[in-house]
Design a protein that fits this description.
123 residues; mainly alpha; two-stranded antiparallel sheet; 5 helices; 2 strands; elongated; membrane; signal; transmembrane helix
Length: 123
């Protein structure tokens, strides 16, 4: 259960939006979903090995690498330093599971932004 707590947070976020819960609750749940998808979602590492293949070890989150020291920050550096979109997408999103995690992270981020902006605009 500890590995997949983000799914519960995502379900609670959907329920909070549908029941029009307080803004603070929606923001906290949104940030929890984003942090889960970014740093704790169980995925493959996807960092580039020395022979040009991609690492298939287990990792936590779409931006973190596996337990190898070289892979820990390689994916974050790849997003910041490389200009090739294909390399970024192949290393961060190698399978459908990582694409789903990215979808959850973007949805949570959009939810947090909407939870702050909607009350300002409607009042």
């Amino acid at each position: 259960m500890r590995t997949y707590w983000g799914y519960i947070a995502a379900a609670a976020l959907i329920a909070a939006w549908s029941s029009r819960a307080a803004t603070a609750v929606i923001v906290v749940l949104s940030l929890a979903v984003v942090s889960y998808a970014t740093f704790q979602f169980p995925v493959w590492c996807g960092a580039v090995n020395r022979n040009g293949t991609y690492c298939r070890r287990n990792a936590s989150g779409i931006l973190m690498g596996c337990n190898l020291r070289q892979h820990r920050w390689q994916k974050i550096k790849l997003v910041v330093l490389r200009s090739k979109a294909g390399d970024i997408s192949r290393s961060i999103f190698p399978t459908a599971k990582e694409k789903f995690a990215a979808f959850i992270a973007i949805g949570g981020l959009a939810s947090a932004i909407a939870a702050v902006i909607v009350p300002v605009v409607t009042d």
